[in-house]
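re: ur question from yesterday

yeah so i grabbed the chain u mentioned. its 188 aa long if i counted rite. heres the sequnce exactly as i have it in my notes:
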Amino acid sequence: MKNSLLTLTLCGLTLIAKSQNTSVEKSTFGLQTGVLGIWAYNEAKLSNTIALRTEIGFDFGIWETTYYDDYDSPIILTPVIVVEPRFYYNLKKRSENSKRIDGNSGNFIALKTSYHPELALFNTDDAPVVSDFSIIPTWGIRRNIGDHFNYEAGIGVGYSYTFAKRAGYAEDKGEMELNMHLRIGYRF
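ran it thru and got these structure tokens back, copy pasting raw so excuse formatting
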């Protein structure tokens, strides 16, 4: 009788341990770099599948638009502030298939909102810096490489508004914007 109770108790504990909820991490910090920049980020848990990503970094680019007609494609390094809610929609499936979900490793849908202020740290032609704000729905993936490294890719199309009047131009401008990113990072 004692052996039967002990066996049932151990089986019950095993079932309880297996029934844990899959969830995004409570908080995760890291650095990422890509072709055109470097960023520091934090993702904070809002629910089991939603995390709020905040990011500060530097975007590097070669700008060639109507605002820079008088300049030879200026190369600019400008700060960026990003707030991005992310919905990780396949964590449960990845967990059931014994795939990693640590560090929020999974597929996500996000609403990326970013702001570039009128500031440049590197500006080859001393071109006027024009600030902008964008909202871009994005689909992406994040996967881990070892314990601390990860890579991330995403794509989306959204809206960007440029505050050109502040820099002395005739009018502000709103337009469609493409977001494509491929990054490699380190998670602390």
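noticed a couple things. The beta strands are 27-34, 37-45, 50-62, 75-88, 106-116, 122-123, 132-145, 149-162, 173-187. also The chain has two helices and nine strands.
anyway ttyl
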